[in-house]
Amino acid sequence: MNKRGNFSGNLGFILATAGSAIGLGNLWRFPYLAAKNGGGLFLIIYIILVLTFGYTLMTAEVAIGRKTGVGPLQAYGKTDRRFGFLGWIATVVSIIILSYYCVIGGWIVNYGATYMNGGASKIYETGVKDFYSSFITNPIAPIICLFVFMGLSALIVLLGVEKGIEKASKVMMPILFVLIVGIAIYSLTLSHYDIKADTTRTAWEGLKIYLIPNFEGLTVGKFFSILLDATGQMFYSLSVAMGIMITYGSYAKKESDLVSSINQIEFFDTGVAVLSGMIIIPTVFVFQGTEGLAKSGPNLLFVSLPQVFEQMGIIGHTVGALFFLLVFFAALTSTIALMEAVTVSIIDRFHLARPLATSLCFVISLVIGVIVCMGYNLLYCEIPLLNGTTGQILDLLDYLTNNLMLPAVAFLTCILVGWVCRPHYVLDEIKIGHKSEVIHREKLFVVMIKFVAPAQLLVILLQAFNVFSFLG
Ligand code: PHE
After folding, report:
1. Rounded distance between C-alpha atoms, residue 324 and residue 336, angstroms
2. What's the chain's average pLDDT?
3. Local structure of 191: helix, strand or coil
4. Is pLDDT above 80 for 472?
5. Mean pLDDT value of segment 105-131
6. What distance in angstroms lies between residue 437's CA and the mean position of ligand 1's atoms?
7. Dihedral in degrees, nearest 10, Cα atoms 79, 81, 86, 92
8. Helical H runs in 297-353?
9. pLDDT tens-digit map of 193-241
10. Which of 146, 178, 191, 368 is the residue whose CA sits 20 to 30 A from 466?
11. Could you tell me if the CB of 242 is within 6 A of ligand 1?
């Protein structure tokens, strides 16, 4: 056990795990989904899901990790031999997500470095949209950025659990919290006179759009699609169903209070997502109005926001630099978690030394990452996805993992814990180190893991094949 490493205490565990959870999902995906799904209503549904569904899955995984004391590749099989195959699926999911996540991490490196070097005017001269498309279609530059970003996370993983991951999280996470709170406060002071519309828009109006639930035009079909978007987002954001929580759970000490740590992780992860929405939705609204919000979509980070920073004038350079630094830290701590999950699986299963295991993981994901980069130039094609849209290699991998593989792993984890080894397997483990005899959400956990979560996951899996499109 000692050879693998441990977190030194509760704080290390909480910050590292929160670091894995807080990532691009919070800063980019959450605000864009909230804007798409009518703000306040999405927010309420999301928070309820985190406190029920998210809590259940996270608890199950962290407990399996600490109880088995091994990486995800072996942990499921050690819990019940028939479920050993789940370890392989979870590991493959981690490798795939790691590869394309690092490609986006590379883009962030490029934008962050450009803003920090005072090169933002270069982006504006080229035109924000053209800068983005000429960068991602360049055959070399994104690969170099990918290499730098992935190399950085490999270096941290190489240093081990306490000296690498825990230390890096203890430095990056507090800075991240300060940055996000600071930028949120600044965004709420913004207002802008729009010459074309002859009107002044303020951040407070934008905040209202974000926070006040909008029930106008709400149909059953629309509600259902908001629910599915929120569930998928909750999954991705909490980093469950891919072995990461098992990995970090396996480094938690027996005297660590998992129950209170999980509560805090949920709080931080949701808090950062909500704050990020408080930055992005009012800011885009102030400068681009409601059409800006409707248009932002997946290009939010690399097109819409730089456009906003451009409109802010000189201060936009500093805000842009700080914002990309924030996104960089968030993405890096998530990547480290993914890389660690794969690395420790190799260490535990094949008894390789950490440097060798890390290098192996680095090389495999770099190769996939390079192929993902080439999806925008040499290997460009429009790949049809099951939901009727098309996309590039990155979109295909994102769709396969988020819509199919993650729900499948989560569904089978619920069956394993709820019906095969039974909920007490997890509950007994989390009671160790817990200060009181009572676990507040114990009954909720049992009902969720046995019935509600598997049913909801089945619906998500079916939706990946567009089965519910008839709801409109
Ligand atoms: N939870 C991370 C986020 O919100 C995404 C992630 C998914 C990280 C999977 C690691 C593994 O961005």
Report:
1. 18
2. 93
3. strand
4. no
5. 95
6. 32
7. 100
8. 304-311, 315-350
9. 999 999 999 999 999 999 998 888 888 888 888 888 898 899 889 999 8
10. 368
11. yes
Does ligand 1 lie within 6 Å of residue 21's CB atom? yes
Question: Where do we find the tokens 């089945």?
Answer: 458
- pLDDT at site 3: 67
Handedness of CA 229, 230, 236, 241 (dihedral sign): negative
Closest ligand 1 atom to residue 269 Cα is: 4
Using a pLDDT cut of 90, give the percent of the chain over it.
82
Check pLDDT > 50 for residue 1. Answer: no
Per-residue pLDDT tens digits for 263-312: 999 999 999 999 999 999 999 999 999 888 887 777 889 999 999 999 99
Give tens-digit pLDDT for 131-148: 999 999 999 999 999 999
Phi and psi at 39, nearest 5°, equal 55, -110
Cβ of 406 less than 6 Å from ligand 1 = no
Of the residues 17, 20, 402, which should be mutated to test ligand 1's pocket, given the most ligand atoms within 8 Å of the CB?
A: 20
Check if 236 has its Cβ closer than 6 Å to any atom of ligand 1. yes
28 lines ligand 1 (CB under 6 A): no
What integer is the mean pLDDT of 110-136? 95
Are 442 and 363 in contact by the 8 Å Cβ rule? The answer is: no
402 lines ligand 1 (CB under 6 A): no
Distance 461 CA to ligand 1 centre (A): 19
Q: What three-state secondary structure class fits 390?
A: strand
* 138, two tokens: 């360049």
Q: Which residue has the tokens 């390789």?
A: 352
Q: Is the CB of 283 under 6 A from ligand 1?
A: no
Cα(333)–Cα(325) distance, integer angstroms:
12
- For ligand 1, what atom is nearest to the CA of residue 238? 1
CA dihedral 292→297→299→305, nearest 10 degrees, is 40
**DSSP for residue 467:** G
Rounded to the nearest angstrom, the distance between the alpha carbon of 118 and the centre of ligand 1 is 30
Assess contact for 403 and 460: CB atoms under 8 A. yes
Cα–Cα dist 300/107, whole Å: 13
- Give 393 Cα–ligand 1 centroid separation in angstroms: 19
Cα of 265 vs centre of ligand 1, distance in Å, is 13
Give mean pLDDT, residues 424-440. Answer: 89
Mean pLDDT confidence for 334-355: 96
Cβ distance 394 to 401 under 8 Å?
A: no
Q: Is 26 in the pocket of ligand 1 (CB under 6 A)?
A: yes
